[in-house]
């Protein structure tokens, strides 16, 4: 029989709603179980979140970004899997109090997995399943390491809640408080005629605002602290377009765990594309199903026998398999900030990026803030509408004479002084496209694609030397250190990993400001604090050579040694 979605149905699907799973303290958790209508036994895919399993039947839509369980019917009807979706404690139809990935929630994952392994219809082999919050849960499934867990496939999820989600470079991001209120409303509100749902009473936004440094509250909720405990095979899947939420987690998670592992980074450009991809049967059939089949059914070839990383090269618009990540053949080269104009973009300064450091004194670049022409954050509005470059600092290379591929992490070394005791640095790296002379004469800005971002609060510049590498500075975020107004400091700003082919005629553009905007950064913006009024100075002379260190892939590069 063929399903409405066009795949061959091998099994009829049975759905059991509000199945109780009792925890060690007597709390009853609620599960929705979709499985083939037979005795089995069947392998189990486990999805755990606060997103209410009762909403699984609504249609796939990017209006419902929290509906992240993928093609459930296809896994059950065509592939013979059972999918167990559990409302985490304190949400949906589950009892208890919700407290954002705390130790209680982590212990629940262990007990849920072992419950799944004991059921008569289960073959005793459980795999982690789902994206975003479901991915956060999977990291902790692996950390808890219950006997019935055989693999996890964390799709699009952070491992460090402080650095990767709420305090980028120590700078507070508005996203998670907004997210929590959305989840709380979804759990409470009901259609007319139904009783109200569960009220999530924890004041998570207050706690996020209160814990401004990386303290024990964050350590409890950061999978990154315990990634070495993961022993099961792990397939980490991230997306270049999820720079301000999950990308760092999927890459850092892959790099850190000590278990059989694979990495996939797709070309999804934003939240919507990453969300939509997980719903597509063709993605699961070609990517996740072979992984699950091998570890949960014992079928097919060992997925870990192939190359360990597959990355999408933007610009080239193709995937490439790699034996290691980061790429060992990457050569780290420096692009130096210069005050010389690029004559390619309108900005506050129109500076340049050059491959050789300055050999003579250069006047520094001055940035006064807030800019009087900013609209709804650190962005201007021009003849084309939103203008991300017009009222920020830019440093742009000359047009490339040949294609140039950059793949890996990058670092901006910035010599800076401030009139304040603290300042925030927001960095974007963009691929600026060629522009017709006629359009430039009209005052139009060149087209571009942002390929990486980075952030750092200057007072959070204390590095963890044991964890830092030349390609990724790692900050403690424990003891803020005030700036001395006027004193020059060297800041090392992590730019998130990326892979991009800058084509002949294109330019690299670095944008620097002390804020962002919902007009340019959508969900992942940072509040502009009332005390951010002053002047910052960036230095790029021979003794204070600010530079961008980028991962050049030699086969694509014409840059001299």
Q: Which terms would index this structure?
A:
twelve-stranded mixed sheet; disordered C terminus; 2 domains; Jelly Rolls; 12 helices; alpha+beta; 30% strand; 561 residues; six-stranded mixed sheet; Rossmann fold; single chain
What does this structure look like?
It is a single chain. The protein has 561 residues and is α+β, with helices and mostly antiparallel strands. It has 2 domains: 225 residues, Alpha/Beta hydrolase fold, catalytic domain (Rossmann fold), CATH 3.40.50; 226 residues, Galactose-binding domain-like (Jelly Rolls). The protein has 12 helices and 26 strands. The strands form 5 sheets. Strands 13, 14, 15, 18, 19, 20, 21, 22, 23, 24, 25 and 26 form a 12-stranded mixed beta sheet that branches. Strands 1-2-4-3-5-6 form a 6-stranded mixed beta sheet. The chain is globular and about 80 Å long. The relative contact order is 0.12. The C terminus is likely disordered.
What's the arrangement of secondary structure elements?
Elements: E1 13-22, E2 28-36, E3 42-49, H1 72-78, E4 82-87, H2 103-118, E5 122-128, H3 133-144, E6 149-151, H4 161-166, E7 167-168, E8 171-172, H5 175-188, H6 204-210, H7 216-221, E9 234-239, H8 247-256, E10 261-266, H9 271-277, H10 281-297, E11 309-313, E12 318-322, E13 331-338, E14 351-354, E15 365-369, E16 380-382, E17 385-387, E18 393-396, E19 404-418, E20 424-432, H11 437-441, E21 448-457, E22 489-502, E23 507-513, H12 518-521, E24 534-541, E25 544-545, E26 547-552
Parallel strand pairs: 3-4, 3-5, 5-6, 9-10, 10-11, 14-18
Antiparallel strand pairs: 1-2, 2-4, 7-8, 11-12, 13-14, 13-26, 15-24, 16-17, 18-23, 19-22, 19-24, 19-26, 20-21, 20-23, 24-25
Helix pairs in contact: 2-3
């Amino acid at each position: 029989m063929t399903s409405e979605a066009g795949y061959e149905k091998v099994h009829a699907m049975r759905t059991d709603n509000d199945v109780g799973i009792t925890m060690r303290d007597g709390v009853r958790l609620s599960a929705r179980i979709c499985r083939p209508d037979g005795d089995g036994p069947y392998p189990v895919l486990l999805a755990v979140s606060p997103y209410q399993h009762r909403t699984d039947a609504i249609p796939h839509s990017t209006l419902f970004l929290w509906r992240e369980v993928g093609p459930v019917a296809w896994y059950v009807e065509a592939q013979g899997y059972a999918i167990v979706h559990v409302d985490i404690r304190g949400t949906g139809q589950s009892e208890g109090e919700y407290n954002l990935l705390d130790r209680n929630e982590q212990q629940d994952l262990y007990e849920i997995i072992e419950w799944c392994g004991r059921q008569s219809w289960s073959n005793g082999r459980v795999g982690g399943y789902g994206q975003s919050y479901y991915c956060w849960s999977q990291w902790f499934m692996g950390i808890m390491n219950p006997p019935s867990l055989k693999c996890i496939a964390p799709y699009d999820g952070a491992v460090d809640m402080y650095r990767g989600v709420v305090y980028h470079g120590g700078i507070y991001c508005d996203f998670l408080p907004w997210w929590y209120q959305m989840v709380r409303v979804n759990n409470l509100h009901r259609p007319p005629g139904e009783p109200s749902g569960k009220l999530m009473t924890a004041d998570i936004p207050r706690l996020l605002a209160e814990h401004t440094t990386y303290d024990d509250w964050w350590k409890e909720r950061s999978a990154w602290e315990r990634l070495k405990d993961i022993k099961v095979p792990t397939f980490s899947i991230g997306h270049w377009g999820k720079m301000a939420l999950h990308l760092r987690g999927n890459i850092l998670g892959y790099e850190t765990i000590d278990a059989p592992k694979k990495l996939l980074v797709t070309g999804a450009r934003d939240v919507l594309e990453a969300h939509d991809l997980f719903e597509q049967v063709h993605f699961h059939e070609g990517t996740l199903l072979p992984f699950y089949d091998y570890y949960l059914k014992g079928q097919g070839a060992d997925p870990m026998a192939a190359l360990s990383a597959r990355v999408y090269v933007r610009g080239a618009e193709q995937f490439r398999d790699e034996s290691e990540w980061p790429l060992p053949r990457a050569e780290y080269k420096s692009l130096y900030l210069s005050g010389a104009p690029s004559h390619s973009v309108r900005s506050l300064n129109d500076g340049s990026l050059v491959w050789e450091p300055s050999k003579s004194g250069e006047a520094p670049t001055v940035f006064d803030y807030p800019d009087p022409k900013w609209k709804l954050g650190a962005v201007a509005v021009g003849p084309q509408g939103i203008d991300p470059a017009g009222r920020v600092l830019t440093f742009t290379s000359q047009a490339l004479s040949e294609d140039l591929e950059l793949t890996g992490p990058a670092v901006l070394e910035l010599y800076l002084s401030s009139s304040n005791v603290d300042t925030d640095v927001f960095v974007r790296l963009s691929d600026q496209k060629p522009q017709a002379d006629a359009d430039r004469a009209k005052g139009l800005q060149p087209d571009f694609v942002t390929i990486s971002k980075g952030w750092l609060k200057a007072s959070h510049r204390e590095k963890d030397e044991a964890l830092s590498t030349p390609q990724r500075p790692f900050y403690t975020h424990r003891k803020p250190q005030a700036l001395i107004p006027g004193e020059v400091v060297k800041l090392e700003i992590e730019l998130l990993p990326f892979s991009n082919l800058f084509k002949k005629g294109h330019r690299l553009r670095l944008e620097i400001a002390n804020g962002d905007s919902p007009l340019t950064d959508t969900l992942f913006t940072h509040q502009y604090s009332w005390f951010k009024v002053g002047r910052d100075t960036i230095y790029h002379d021979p003794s204070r050579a600010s530079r961008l260190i980028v991962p050049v892939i030699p086969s694509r590069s014409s840059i001299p040694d």
